[in-house]
Amino acid sequence: MVQQIFQVDAFTREPFAGNPAGVCILPAGSTEERFQEIAREMNVAETAFVVPRGEEFGLRWFTPSAEVDLCGHATLASAHVLWETGILARQREARFHTLSGMLVARRAGGRIELDFPAEPPEGCAAPDGLFEALGIETPLFVGRNRLDYLIEVESETVVRRLAPDFRRLAGVAGRGAIVTAGATDSRFDFVSRYFAPSVGVDEDPVTGSTHCCLGPWWSERLGKSVLSAWQASRRGGALEVEPRGERILIRGEAVTVLRCELLV
What we know:
6 helices, Diaminopimelate Epimerase, Chain A, domain 1, globular, 18-stranded mixed sheet, alpha+beta, 264 residues
């Protein structure tokens, strides 16, 4: 049986923007070692591995160097591929069994809506070396959830000008660091960037899972139930987030840029 592998740009409607994700649909029994080898070969921030389980799917995410517990853009990309290929009827939800529990994706007009766990931060002291690695002098807030540190800075300009020391940042405990500020563009409520060199991703172009943290935090600060976000990486990408208690809805678009056959 020919195994196809796809590359999908997530959180964008334009090719070569947003965040590229590999999506590989494999039969049950595929090994973790093979997942990691394929992810290393794809060499994008995350490659998603989808394994059918009856009418639902197992889903795991690997960077080129490690498995991660939660990944939004590769989940969005996986649902996009399932609908685009006809493996899953377009009117049906995509239901994924993951390391972060059951995740659901559904079509919402021209966008894909992800139903994810909310991961709000709690204020904390910064670990040694975090600010120095990021090049931040006067943060407005520092917090952490189970995955990442969240740092608010004074302006979008500061966010965009960051040039972290990735080698130093890789030594800081945790998956990565989210840096955020209010947006200057009236189309958006806030901007962010995300750095995770400890799992092999110096800067992730657009990160769904970080908005599980950013959404609840900015919603409380701004008093808004639905927020528009821009991740200010070089590629850039737009998301809409809607916190709902212990869950959060994350909406975005996707476009397939590559379809290949896996020959091994």
